[in-house]
Structures are given as structure tokens and as C-alpha cells.
Amino acid sequence: MGCGCRHDSSFVLDRPRGFEGYLMLFVKTKAIFVIGGETFNVEPNTFIIYDKNSPQYYKACENEYINDWIQFECSENISDSINIVFDRPIYVGESVNVSQYFQLIADCYYRTGNMQTAGFLIKALLSELYETASSHDEASIAHYRELLDLRRKIYALPSEEWSVEKMAQEISVSEPYLHLLYKKAFGVTCTADVIKSRIEAAQHYLAYTEMTIEEVAFTCGYKNAVHFSRQFRQMVNVSPSEWRKTNTVV
Questions:
Q1: Which 3 state secondary structure label does DSSP give 42?
Q2: How do beta strands 2-7 and 65-72 pair?
Q3: Which long-range CB contacts under 8 A does 154-162 form with residues at least 24 apart?
Q4: Per-residue CA distances from 157 to 43, 62, 136, 220 (Å)
Q5: Which of 51, 120, 216, 217 is the most exposed place for a label (fewest CB within 10 A)?
């Protein structure tokens, strides 16, 4: 196990055969996971538990990769009493102090060697995580299906002018209510998600096309390249042209 483990931007972990026990990760930076052929771009404060022998592939997304991790075995089926979803990242945010759990488990293991207490802490962590996650499911969030449809449109059409008024009209709710629902459903505000969708689209065009910076900006919904470049740097920490130099695949 390890807490606050840091790796540079070239970090990649690739275990096609997984691990004979379980692997828990708490990711503290943006990262990319590939699971069953599906790619997940995860935000900081995301948790995942890999099942026994599940293929593991994840890597740094931007500058560095930081996580807490524990590999462990268990004499009982840990999913008997906890509704665990294996091999699927879940955004935790600040709803559960996962890092504190990892530190307590590490203290039990390294300082006292008390494996029974460490096991109790692992169960407590998983119980709290998945009970919290289940409270954010479709049944507990009004307009959840409409919110999903709205989010798909935002990411599919980054060039659209996604004002809060327009997004609220899409699902027939007030603007303040939209803010509350969207943050509860996805852990991010609707306006921040619009920016994220545009920057992700821009990264695709920068990497895979020869479009100019201005053309990328207009294609991704920006009225001028200056605003685009400023927002890109805020999110990615480098300018669009600098990012393109190290990420071009054409």
C-alpha cells in the first residue's frame, strides 16, 4: 500500500492479467482508465476497486499522477454484505474522507501489524463509499434521465452556445434548480462541465487535425482565440500550441 504516491506525466500502469487479490485506488489527480475497452477520463478524488484478476490499465492525464493505493486479499467475499461495483471509477469528491481511511489502514499495517483492525477499516471505507454512491443514483435525483441527455448534448455539440438559461430550458427547470441537480448528479457545475467539454474537444482537434488555433477555438464554441487560449491554459496548465507540440498524433 502507499499514500500520496507521485508519478510524472509519463506514468502508465498496464497489468493485462490484473492482480490475484483486490486493488483499491484513490486518484488525487486527473487520470485515464481503460476498462473493458471503454475509456474513462476521471477527475481528482475518484475511487476504484479492481476485482481479482481484472485487467488494470490507467495512466497520467496531464502533468503528474498521484494516488493512494492498497492491494489486499480477503478470506471472505467482501461483496456479500456491501453492494460493491468492481472495475468502475466513482467520483467521491469531498463526500467521504478516503485519504484518511487509507492513512489509518496504513498505520494499522505498518505500525501495529493489526490486520484485523485494518480489515475492519477497509470494510468501513467500502460501506461508506458505496452507500454514499447509491444515494446519488437515478432514483434519488429528479430529472436524472433528462440530465444525462443534456450532458450528452453538451459533449457532442461543444460549439453550441450553452448558456445556463438554454440548459435549464432543455429540461424545463429553473436556472437555480438546474445548478443543484447538475452538481448532485455529476459532481460538477453545468457551466464548468461546458468548459470541460470544449477543452476536451479542443484537445482532440489539436492532436488529430492540422486546424489552426483560431479554427479550433471557433469549432469548440469560442468567439475568439484569446478567450479560448486563456481557458485552455487554466485547465491544462499550458497553452494550446504548447500542448499540441507534445500530443500531436497526425
A1: strand
A2: antiparallel
A3: 154/190, 154/193, 154/194, 154/197, 155/197, 155/200, 155/201, 158/194, 158/197, 158/198, 158/200, 158/201, 158/219, 158/220, 158/221, 159/218, 159/219, 159/220, 159/221, 160/221, 161/221, 162/190, 162/194, 162/221
A4: 21, 24, 26, 8
A5: 120
Residue type, 56: Q
> Between vectors from CA 150 to CA 148 and to CA 152, what angle results, nearest 5°?
70
pLDDT tens digits in sequence order for the chain, 250 residues long: 999 999 999 999 999 999 889 999 999 998 999 999 889 988 888 999 999 999 999 999 878 999 999 999 887 777 776 888 899 998 887 778 899 999 999 988 888 777 878 888 898 899 888 877 665 555 457 787 788 889 888 988 899 999 999 999 999 988 988 998 888 888 889 999 999 999 989 998 998 899 999 999 999 999 999 999 999 999 999 999 999 998 887 5
H or E element in which residue 231 lies: helix 225-236
Place of cell 471472505: 76
Q: Which three cell numbers stand for residue 215?
A: 479554427
Q: Domains of the chain, with CATH numbers?
A: 2-134 (2.60.120.280), 140-247 (1.10.10.60)
Measured CA to CA, the distance from residue 166 to residue 183 in angstroms comes to 17
- Would you call 125 exposed, middle or buried from its count of C-beta atoms within 10 A (0-12, 13-18, 19+)? buried
pLDDT of res. 188: 86
Nearest by Cα to 25 from 42, 6, 50: 50
